[in-house]
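User: Hi! I'm working on a homework problem where we have to compare a predicted structure to a textbook description. Could you give me the structure for the chain below?
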Amino acid sequence: MFAAFRPTFAAIARQQRVPAAYQQLRFAGHNKWSKVKHTKGAKDAKKSKLFSKLSLEIVSAVRATGNPDPALNAKLASILNRAKAASMPKDNIETALKKATSKDKDTVEDVLYECYGPGGIAMIIEAVTDKPTRTIKEVKEVLNRVGGSVSSVGWLFDKKGKVVFASGESGHSLEQMMDEAIEAGAEDIEDEDGLVEIICDFSQLANISRALTAKQYEVQRMEAAYIPQSMMDITDQEMVELVEKCLDDMENLDDVVKIHCNAVVQPEQEA
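Assistant: Happy to help. Predicted structure tokens:
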């Protein structure tokens, strides 16, 4: 991660555990076809869940400004770029945009939940929902299963801005992209899989996104980031499993779009 940036759980998890869909690839031979089907089904379900969450974000971005034009709505433009990168079907995107601009629209709102999870880890949960009472009930059910609770933890995080962008039509190398990000006002930078992620002062989020777009970069994320002031190492393997279960179950809730967490999960040491 960044030299001076405290990593998110998602990034740590990518390094320290194998996603369920890929665990199937460890086994070969006996009943291979059933495992292929199972793996494909898991991937399809994961993709469907991603598309549903992107649809919620599209609706939220349009209703926040009342503007469905991505040229005039930077947050919407970034979500549409991310949807394109995820191969979200055009019909799904158009359906979300129609829902966002419908005269008979239901009330969709952004909500934020502050929680303690297993082992005392702190979490900030972002959700987009048309029924906050349903969403908070589901969040509490996940927490109750792992000994967590809804509680004030915002003071443990710093609110920053986050922009993730690709080279787009610029043709720039990663080094050039990072140089431009620093010039635009980035406080911390990292690169991964051809993308550059920057952390900035939240008040400069829109300005930096516009500056990068003007350089012909493709902005895929433009959002608030809640950065832990300190990280909590989770080393006990029973607690590791409980933390992973909590985060996985929370992420699988239909209305939850982002999770910010201060946990660092340590992999089990080989004997």
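For your comparison, note the following. Confidence is low (pLDDT under 50) at residues 1-40. The two ends are 28 Å apart (CA to CA). Good luck with the assignment!
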